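Handout, tutorial session.
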Amino acid sequence: MKVPLLDLQAQYAPIKDQILLAVADVMASCQFINGPAVRQFEQAMCAYTGAAAAVGVSSGTDALLCGLMALGVGPGDEVITTPYTFFATAGSIARVGARPVFVDIELDTFNLDATKLAAAVTPRTKAIMPVHLFGQMADMDAIMAVAAKHNLAVIEDAAQSIGTTYKGRPCGTIGTMGCFSFFPSKNLGTLGDGGMIVTGDKALGETLAIFRNHGSNPKYYHKWVGGNFRLDTIHAAALLVKLPHLKQWSDRRRANGALYDKHFAGCDAVKTPVIRPYNTSIYNQYVIRVPRRNELMEFLKQAGIGTEVYYPVSMHLQECFAYLGHKRGDFPNAELAQDTSLALPIYGELTEAQIAYVAGKVKEFFT
């Protein structure tokens, strides 16, 4: 049996005609930049998340970057975040000239450990950037309490967690702003790169919309130095087709996660994802922790099973961040996660037989 890590064709096939029609409409209109579909999708995202404003941007990375720029974060400032994340999180902080300050993770959820947050705050701290990793939100009450005490902005890196909730509250709407990615592999993916910023502050939403368009308002009059962070109309049109399917797709992933949990029950070698009781997860990835991770990965490859390591090198150990002065041992949970984590196929179109095959092969390796 062949089980790829992700099969985008399986998701695309049922909605192919709708996608092609939406793209054809954009092509016929020739309104490729800031066309009607962009505003329509922004309105749909406001309705979906309950946010007051939604600003479509060119990628999840640019969502973070645009958000930091709009908040005035720059040289001399510090932004607290997690070392165990995709590069864009820490990279966006560095790109505006600020200093990433890392706080270790909770090993069971892979998210930033909010109990260690207060100790990382200094007079230079300007913002906190929690990451809702693998489809589950971080402990936002604790994070917001620290932010309120020190008057800090909170930028939710929600690239992997659209549709997730924390104590019933939608992802991306608790902090100052939330940043989403529509990279094709995400639960809600477009035809290339795309992203969005949502916020409960309409005035901030207007500022973000200016920053995404070179800081220009009106055209050719620049109040700020912004960037070219616009969401292409074709991507917005495709996302409008996909958004109504998101709940069903995420429900299927949750069901697949529950099946994996059932199969791995009693297998001590496999540490399965822990979802907090007050959280929902969209299982953007299903990440286990195992000994002999690399050997298992090769064993599964030989069995026709796709896997991936998210992430093999934590941010504090990346060469480009050597100037921060960190060494191995500074964030032990992040380092243990990088050495033992392995993502298994979790996409909604998986069959029960495929899940049983994957889980069976994992258990076979350890027996």
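The second record follows below. Compare its token runs with those of the first.
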Amino acid sequence: MTAAWARLDRELAAWGAAGRRATLWLRDDDACRDSTELQRLLDIACSCDAPVALAVIPAGLEPSLVAAVARCDRASVLQHGYAHRNHAPAGARSCELGGHRSVAATLAELVVGFDGLEGAFGERFLPVLVPPWNRIDSDVTARLPGAGFRALSTFGPRAAPQAAAGLAQCNTHVDLIAWRRDRAFIGAEAAIDRIVGHLQARRGGGVDPAEPTGLLTHHLALDDAAWSFLADFVIRTRAHDAVAWLDAGAIFGARGPRGAAISARSA
């Protein structure tokens, strides 16, 4: 691990030497209710003064999550689909927001979820859609601005700053869980290698240099090793002069009054 942290230090030093700051952000998916695991995540965010964006499943929202978010001023809320329900046929990759049913039906659910989250969280809710399984049909994407959404967040380097006209995009790039390997932690060295890889690609222009490097977590799936790495990584980078941890509101510019979202739907 000493060698892995050294690789990260060298990469951050390169950013500093170039007069640049490596921007980072943290998105945590599948939030519905308060739990020991959620508190562990929010404790890291609050104690380290590092923002976290919670992707909340509207249909599963419980009042305990609203209370937990209210207690942590470093937490913001994004919309994680509607019910995190798979509508794809047997044998196809899981997808809630795909082309397996009408776009109108999909958007109608998303609007219900949007209104519920905005009503529950107020200004803590940002009109940003995080598709379950990071998959969404292009026809749905194109119509998101008309439903009040201002941004989209999936996984992998973005092709462009906008996913569609009027719809910003900022993704995550390093998932701490190996979902096809028994939902195991990928390991600290692998996580650092992937983070460094994205930072190097940004610095060299191989991917969009303006897209912050996004760390993706699922608080209910992290084991002790993953939690230990996450805390260490946040503490180390939060104190580094060449790093800036970004709040989701700053990334997406998505904060705004409820009336703005309603107006967008009728535009």
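Points raised in discussion: The chain is about 40% helix and 20% strand.
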